[in-house]
Write a structure and sequence with these properties.
13 helices, 9 strands, about 15% strand, alpha/beta, about 300 residues
Length: about 300
């Protein structure tokens, strides 16, 4: 009954955002955005970009969280979820100021499965002249990676962009200055861009001090991020030890770099696969020396 006056339709139900957009609506007032801001925004962004399949996946991804609403008032669920994520928000007013033990347990299980509780993995790009950049891009093409963690590459955006072309990957490189700026969505590779090298600065497949220095600095940075609590775990791509030493960084490998910059005196490398654990007696030594080190 607004006559000729223009009006805009917004969804007031988080479960119907995509359907509202499909029907001609313009957006939503989304309570779930307090818990999953990037996911909720991505529904709109993917829809406007014509990616209906991606918008549908984003819409469906909040269903487990919405199912928790059966345990109480939606405002109670949302505020409790935000508190579980580490933000000191207050309680709702009585009588909606508490959640049953069963509801809290269900909420925590749902959050563990959702993006808001994924851990940030800092991934070094490896030697820019080697296979590291391509391995990284190929690995991050798998959407399952993003279901279990938030991958953050530490390296040079220009090099990673070139690697996307090498492997024919369709993805967007998203440079960030801090892990908190990452989007952590499949199809987007977040990279903490150190800006050390450009493709024209070195030759692929050749040992160089420039590439060795960059690879070393990626490792140092990811250690720094972990020590500062900005990433939850680290993953390293291969570096070239000859190149690293040419650059003046005299370490025999990643293990020794980690030990030095974390102040760890007693350390060893352990390889693990399911229930199998292997600790090296020797690393990066000649076969003759390895035999001499075996005492039993």
């Amino acid at each position: 009954r607004g006559g000729d006056k223009p009006f805009t339709v917004l969804s007031g139900n988080d479960s119907l955002i995509l359907w509202t957009l499909l029907a001609g609506g313009k957006g939503a007032i989304a309570g779930c955005a307090n818990v999953f801001p990037h996911t909720m925004v991505s529904i709109y962004e993917k829809f406007t970009a014509g990616d209906l399949e991606g918008a549908r996946r984003a819409q469906d991804s909040i269903r487990p969280f919405r199912d928790i609403f059966k345990f109480g008032n939606p405002n109670t669920i949302v505020k409790t979820a935000v508190k579980e994520l580490g933000y000191p928000v207050g309680l709702c007013r009585a009588p909606f100021n508490s959640l049953s033990p069963a509801g809290l347990d269900a909420l925590r299980k749902a959050l563990l499965k959702e993006a808001a509780m994924r851990k940030i993995l800092g991934i070094t790009m490896g030697d820019p002249a080697g296979v590291g950049p391509e391995i990284t891009v190929k690995a991050l093409q798998d959407p399952k990676v993003y279901e279990s963690c938030k991958p953050l590459v530490v390296g040079d955006a220009a090099i990673l962009e070139r690697a996307c072309g090498f492997v024919g990957a369709k993805c967007t490189i998203h440079p960030v200055a801090d892990p908190s700026e990452g989007l952590y969505e499949h199809g987007i590779i977040d990279i903490l861009d150190l800006g050390l090298l450009k493709p024209e600065d070195f030759a692929i497949g050749q040992v160089s001090a420039a590439a060795g220095d960059a690879a070393f600095r990626y490792v140092r940075k990811v250690i720094e991020l972990a020590m500062d609590g900005k990433v939850d775990a680290t993953v390293t791509n291969p570096l070239n030890k000859e190149a690293m030493n040419l650059a003046g960084h005299h370490f025999s490998g990643h293990t020794e770099i980690y030990a030095y910059y974390t102040g760890t005196e007693h350390y060893t490398m352990m390889l693990a696969h399911k229930d199998l654990r292997v600790v090296h007696v020797s690393t990066h030594v000649s076969l003759r020396e390895a035999c001499d080190r075996v005492k039993k």
